[in-house]
Amino acid sequence: MTMALDLARALDPVVFAKDCGLTPDPWQAELLRSTARRALLLCSRQSGKSTVTALLALWVALFEAGLVVIVSPSQRQSAEMLRTIKGFLAHLKNGPSIAAESALKIEFTNGARILALPGTEKTIRGIAGAALIVIDEAARVEDELLAAVRPMLATAKDGGRLIALTTPAGKRGFFFESWTGTGDWTRVKVAASDCPRISKEFLAEELKELGAMRFSEEYELEFRDNDEAVFPMAIIAAAFTQEVQPLWN
Fold first, then answer.
1. Long-range CB contacts (within 8 A, 24+) of 99-105
2. Exposed/middle/buried for 23, CB within 10 Å: 0-12, 13-18, 19+?
3. Which CATH number is 63's domain given?
4. Domain count, the chain
5. Contact predicate 81/70, CB 8 Å
6. Which domain holds residue 198?
């Protein structure tokens, strides 16, 4: 029975999702079953992008026995996705055996690992052979990150997989350039109005609270520059860095 169950889960990630307690929306089911090696998810807040990506990360770890790397602008955000994965594991009956576990990683007895890291170029160098790399809040990570993560996929079977998910954050950065460019990406767009769990009443309240510009980014997925800014966001962002050394200790 266990072997048959594992086979069904391996052949259809949607079966696996339901066993983990998630009934996917149609777009989530399509993503779970997709064989695309490179995917961009432009999805509104609370649309389920992080949830479905976390589940896919767990499926890859269990059934491809590979290394999964999760990066975000901050350690806290990466750790949050790892907690979502742990929640799926807790819900899964006849689940896999865990060899080691911490707030930032899970290791399974099949040799697979899931690592949660802050999305900075300096913290992720040296990792190789990733079966899946997840870049959460991809419009808000450093531009150098993509150049740092791509070599991780070089020795992975079939070139590994890369999924970048986010809401818009201005007309700048690799996600915006990839989304609007001609590169070989599978692009998935899910606005708030496409999500059955987000009511019209909630959206009306958010529009009133946030204002039209921020609402259009967070829920309608528009890449925008601040109309009141003297310079476009790309120029402003280029003038700042997080790598400045302190003048004194």
1. 103/79, 104/75, 104/78, 104/79
2. exposed
3. 3.40.50.300
4. 1
5. yes
6. 2-238
Q: Residue 247 falls within a domain, yes or no? A: no
Residue 139 in domain: yes
Residue matched to tokens 């307690």 = 21
pLDDT tens digits, 145-173? 777 888 888 888 778 899 999 999 999 88
With a cut of 90, say whether residue 84 has pLDDT above it: yes
Contact predicate 141/135, CB 8 Å: yes
> Which residue is listed with tokens 């930032």?
104
Check residues 85 and 144 and name the one with the higher pLDDT. 85
Token digits for 227? 């109309």
Structure pTM?
0.86
Q: Which residue has the tokens 């070599």?
A: 151
Please give the Cα distance from 197 to 101 (Å, whole number): 33
Pairing of strands 161-166, 38-43: parallel
* Encoded tokens for 132: 């899946």
User: Which DSSP state fits 160?
Assistant: -
Token duo for residue 68: 């999964």
HEC per residue, 29-58: HHHHHCCCCEEEEEECCCCCHHHHHHHHHH
What is the identity of the amino acid at 76?
A: R
Is 70 part of a structural domain of the chain? yes
* Site of tokens 């990792």: 127
Is the pLDDT higher at 3 or at 21? 21
248 inside domain: no
Q: Is residue 160 a contact partner of residue 152, using CB atoms and an 8 Å limit?
A: yes
Three-state SS at 109: coil
* Closest by Cα among 33, 5, 31 to 19: 5
